[in-house]
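From the methods appendix. Each design record in this collection lists the tokenized structure first, followed by the designed amino acid sequence. Records were kept in a plain field format so they could be parsed without special tools. The example shown here is representative of the layout used throughout.

RECORD:
FOLD TOKENS (321 positions):
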């Protein structure tokens, strides 16, 4: 879309120069662009047909459907984190309108980014409730879009686990940012509030203590490893992308808690710099770790607390010695 299409100033500026129509260059120079969020929520009506029926557009009042409103608010909170913390204008950095579909499928136990939009199931009602109930899950799915437009981490093996982990990082940061919560006060849980009361568990994953999020008769025990000694070699799940993500997740959370301030300003900024920086799409954990250290030096300096906390964290999880 045009950078100026949604600017409230556009008509004024066009009118002010009506005698000589403004060129795009003049319009760009006339006023700084203020990125604004542009959300569209659709309802799949419990089918798997996308996008579904449009039910809420930007600046529309809340509807009577909690899933619609949670998706709308969650997209807004994610847009706000990206802009306030990282100066990023939406998922693509160029004001991409944010689109989500709710009530996808029948008893559908997941949420996903399909390359263009976020999609949320209602859950089966036995293990899972609706997937819009967790802000960290909304942030997680949108962050897959950010990764797609930046590092493009291949969704397989270690680069896939890094892709998953970066989505968890952004999911956690969206929650903390929206609550104004410091790293040492945060839960570091991903997907809190998704389980029904029948499940013995707190969330889908714990970034600070991977492997402890749930222990349930039906689901079993949270299988995430917390360090390289527990790395899981498997062909399932694209090479265990949702399992081994526990390792970089814990490195992030440990460093953030050690530093103790707003995680999006310290370690979060370094991880974001890393994902937009010169990183191979097939980066290994060790390559990603080295890239975070390089980014921390540039952002905070060679003698910074951020650099040493990140070094220590990668060593604790066994990625660097
Ligand atoms: N919720 C999962 C995820 O975003 C869905 C998937 O595996 N694609 O990682
Ligand atoms: Zn994911």
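DESIGN:
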């Amino acid at each position: 879309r045009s950078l100026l299409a949604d600017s409230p100033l556009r008509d004024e500026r066009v009118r002010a120069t009506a005698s000589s129509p403004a060129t795009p260059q003049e319009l760009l120079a006339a006023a700084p662009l203020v990125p604004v969020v542009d959300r569209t929520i659709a309802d799949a009506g419990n089918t798997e047909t996308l996008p579904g029926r449009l039910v809420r557009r930007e600046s529309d009042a809340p509807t009577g459907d909690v899933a619609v409103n949670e998706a709308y608010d969650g997209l807004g909170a994610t847009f706000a984190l990206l802009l306030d913390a990282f100066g990023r204008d939406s998922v693509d950095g160029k004001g991409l309108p944010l689109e989500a579909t709710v009530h996808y499928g029948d008893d559908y136990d997941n949420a996903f980014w399909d390359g263009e939009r976020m999609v949320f199931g209602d859950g089966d009602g036995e293990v899972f409730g609706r997937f819009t109930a967790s802000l960290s899950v909304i942030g997680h799915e949108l962050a897959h879009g950010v990764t797609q437009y930046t590092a493009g981490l291949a969704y397989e093996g270690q680069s896939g686990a890094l892709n998953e982990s970066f989505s968890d990082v952004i999911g956690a940061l969206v929650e903390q940012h929206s609550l104004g919560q410091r790293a040492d006060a945060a839960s570091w849980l991903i997907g809190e509030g998704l389980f029904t009361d029948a499940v013995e568990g707190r969330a889908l994953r714990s970034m600070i203590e991977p492997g402890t999020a749930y222990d349930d008769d039906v689901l079993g025990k949270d299988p995430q490893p917390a360090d390289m000694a527990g790395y899981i070699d498997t062909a399932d799940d694209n090479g265990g992308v949702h399992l081994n993500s526990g390792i970089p997740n814990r490195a992030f959370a440990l460093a953030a808690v050690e530093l103790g301030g707003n995680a999006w300003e310290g370690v979060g900024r370094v991880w974001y710099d890393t994902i937009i920086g010169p990183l191979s799409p097939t980066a290994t954990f060790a390559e990603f770790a080295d890239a975070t250290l390089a980014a921390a030096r540039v952002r905070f300096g060679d003698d910074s607390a951020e650099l040493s906390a990140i070094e220590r964290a990668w060593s604790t999880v066994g990625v660097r010695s």
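APPENDIX NOTE: The beta strands are 39-43, 53-57, 98-104, 111-113, 118-121, 189-190, 205-206, 215-216, 220-221.
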